[in-house]
Fold:
Amino acid sequence: MDKPIIAPSILAADFANLQQEVEMLNESDADWIHVDIMDGIFVPNISFGIPVTEAISNHAKKPLDVHLMIEKPENYVEAFYKAGAASISVHYEACPHLHRNLQQIKDLGCKAGVAINPHTNVQLLEDVIHDIDIVCLMSVNPGFGGQKFIENTYVKVRQLKEIIADAGAHTLIEIDGGVNQQNARQLLDAGANILVAGSFVFKSSDPKGTITGLKNV
Ligand code: DX5
Ligand code: ZN
Structure:
């Protein structure tokens, strides 16, 4: 089996030492850096925005995977691309014109992702699956790091895997929220390709070792 793409979420990092945290990720087995953007409207929390993303990008040697938990993402996609995003995910629940949003992201040359909340059925993505590079399955309700993994996610991964296979698409499945060494194996067995991990990595005594552990789970 291919090794997973590991995308530590910088949301759980020490923001007062962001450069050191990014340098730690540069030296680690992390593949991408997951960047969580929250607007206080789509989700009940505010994280950080474009200047901080650019600051991360200035030191990062790994691609930035930007997760937009915001209303009207179309107004900000280009700014995040200019700030250094390699992939940009928008939320299904925030996009009445999802197909258009995906084309906008692709036209910039970024990988286009769609994130879905725990209650959103994966079948709703069937008609656009060929346009999606990454489906980000939320395994917690978006808005906060450090929450408990929702077990129903395994079922969703298997259902989504089937939709992707039936369509002959190349979409990658990303899992975001509550990922740790315990659930990683089962997620990969179900068909996940990318694991996002925030608290599990940054709150551990050896973040680099924890990343390596996830990579080789
Ligand atoms: C939740 C964010 C996640 C989160 C993951 O709204 O999208 O990326 O930071 O953090 P942990 O791994 O702590 O659940
Ligand atoms: Zn995220």
